[in-house]
UniProtKB/TrEMBL annotation:
This is Ankyrin repeat. It holds the Pfam family Ank_2. It comes from Thraustotheca clavata. InterPro entries: Ankyrin_rpt, Ankyrin_rpt-contain_sf, SecEffector_AnkRepeat. SUPFAM superfamilies: Ankyrin repeat. PANTHER family: ANKYRIN REPEAT-CONTAINING PROTEIN. SMART domains: ANK.
């Protein structure tokens, strides 16, 4: 079977998404790709840990550093900063900037690549903790005499001491081996934020470990975070094993289109629907959620549902609401659809509904350069426009309008 990277190099992959681009680079790193890295599509964040962890050899590491040098501007985004002191407060400690790419030599303990940073063992230790690099941290403890029990905070905030407890950060990022290492060393620098944020990021193993070992507990934010971000397995685990529950989070879950979680929350009486639940699903165009709520619930929606769907270009939702529900809409639906250039929705509302539009429809279609919408409104409707239409079009350089 031809790899996706080979397909791209041979011009067989046409539709490039950020997810697919990530797969290209992961495969390039994992296979130690021999070809020219410059022919691969640029990735938005070339320093993300979930990408760098696939680099396996020094050769690829060196090649990628050169690629970054020639294709991306050097700037603050390439670094994280750590205090090289146990006292982690501004004005008391020396700040060391550590490139995100140093995650690779930290992972493999390439001491020659880390030579300069080894002069700042506390800063390097903090970077190792945040990145989940247990081996280099253990090296620093044994060889550089880093007193790990004094490393509680990445940075101390007097107003919120829990904000950057190291073990909260470790839990949030899902570095289970690092959490176990620190815990085995007797460190208890964590709070309920650990499980709350691990749940948000889908770190089920971490959530289970924290629960099983009674480390920090959690708040309702844990299930809220997991539900909103689509982590059904964590929602189920928390419901079956803990008592905190969640808040009125179902509206946000519906907005994000997580149908299975919407169903689970309802079936287990964890979060109550309101009319805004369907409105929220309409905002993001999640027709499957809308159908489920329509067929299984009685809360319904408001006219805002069709307004949202029209404004955001979700024709299938507009059609479904029109055919299956009675709330309808106002002239705002066509106005907003026109403003955003959704001609198909403007045509649908014109053909099947009686609310019409206002002069704002053509005014703002003109402002945003949607000539096809302006032409349709002019030829098919009677509301017309105001002098704003030409003013807006001129201001924004839409000479054709």
């Amino acid at each position: 079977m031809t790899s996706i990277l080979t397909r791209y190099v041979n011009g067989l992959e046409e539709s490039l998404t950020e997810e697919l681009i990530m797969k290209f680079w992961r495969e390039a790193f994992d296979t130690d790709y021999e070809g020219d890295l410059n022919i691969l599509p640029k990735i938005k964040n070339p320093l993300q840990p979930q990408l760098l962890k696939y680099i396996r050899t020094r050769r690829m590491y060196k090649r990628y550093l050169q690629y970054l040098k020639h294709n991306y501007d050097d700037g603050d985004w390439m670094y994280s900063r750590y205090y090289d002191d146990y006292v982690t407060a501004p004005n008391y400690s020396r700040v060391i900037s550590i490139r995100h790419t140093m995650a690779v030599p930290m992972k493999f303990i390439w001491l020659d690549e880390l030579e300069e940073l080894l002069n700042y063992p506390l800063a390097l230790a903090k970077a190792a903790i945040c990145g989940g690099h247990v081996k280099i941290l253990d090296y620093l403890v044994l060889e550089k005499k880093v007193d790990i029990k004094r490393l509680y905070f990445r940075e101390y905030y007097a107003s919120d001491p829990l904000k950057s407890l190291f073990m909260n950060t470790v839990a949030e990022e899902g570095h289970l081996d690092m959490f176990k290492y620190l815990h085995a060393k007797g460190i208890q620098a964590y709070s309920s934020n650990a499980m709350d944020n691990a749940a948000k990021n889908g770190q089920l193993d971490m959530v289970q470990y924290l629960h099983d070992n009674q480390l920090g507990g959690c708040t309702t934010l844990a299930m809220d975070n997991a539900a909103v971000h689509g982590h059904l397995s964590i929602v189920k685990f928390l419901h079956r094993n803990r008592h905190e529950g969640c808040t009125q989070v179902i509206d946000y879950v519906a907005k994000n289109g997580h149908l299975e979680i919407v169903q689970y929350l309802i079936e287990n009486n964890l979060s109550q629907c309101t009319y805004f639940t369907m409105d929220a699903a309409a905002f993001s165009g999640h027709l499957n959620v809308i159908k489920y709520l329509h067929e299984n619930r009685t809360e319904g929606c408001t006219i805002t549902a069709m307004h949202y769907a029209a404004e955001n270009g979700h024709l299938s939702v507009v059609e479904y609401l029109h055919n299956n529900r009675t709330e309808g809409c106002t002239r705002k639906a066509m106005d907003d659809a026109a403003k955003n250039g959704h001609l198909d929705i403007v045509k649908f509302l014109h053909k099947y509904r009686a609310e019409g539009s206002t002069t704002s429809a053509m005014d703002y279609a003109a402002k945003n350069g949607h000539l096809n919408v302006v032409e349709f409104l002019h030829n098919s409707r009677t509301e017309g426009c105001t002098t704003k239409a030409m003013d807006f079009a001129a201001e924004n350089g839409h000479l054709d309008i």
